[in-house]
Here is the input.
Amino acid sequence: MSEMADSRVALLFSGGMDSAVLLGELLAAGRRVQPLFVDCQWHWQAAELTWARRYLRAVSRPGLDELVVLQMPLRDLYADHWSITGEGVPGADAPDQQVYLPGHNPLLLIKAQIWCRMHGVGSLALGALASNPFADATEEFFRYFEKAMDQAVSGHVRLVRPLEHLQKSEVMRRGQSLPLSLTFSCLAPVGEEHCGACNKCAERRRAFTSAGVDDPTDYASDAAPSVT
Here is the structure.
């Protein structure tokens, strides 16, 4: 955490395991953390936001600011995409490319970085991992995007990725003392429950197994078939 010397930092927070563990580590390091949730009205985000709030209540302590929800509805862009309709959600064995959301990181970052600039927060943390396979999650992308946004907001908001060299299983082992049962990572929730059949649920199961950590998640389905 030495790379983030300033006391206050904003965190792009989804309530998933990566951002949840990063939140815990930032607080443990004595940082004042401002969680930001960007609501794009994707199919799973109502459940995601519910769990995000539960997690924040569970880890509440001095230094944790109240969640800010930023609205960025994408229905006009994504139209009949599975992320909006919930139909044809990539299943457990779907390749990474099927899970890709075009423009995902730049869309979230634009909103969050402008918020940071307008509220005097100089650093924005992301729970990006080494295992992310997409072009908008690379060192090169973040470096150039940061420079472009500095010009756009007439100031500097530093993008920091403390978990960038870690795999998900490593992150989970580091976060074992945190309430990981209150994290959420599902593309097709059944009510507020993990479906157990989508690509993200399968990734979640594998991460717990690889980390050697008991999975406390309640899944609507015990199996993990493809969803087509």
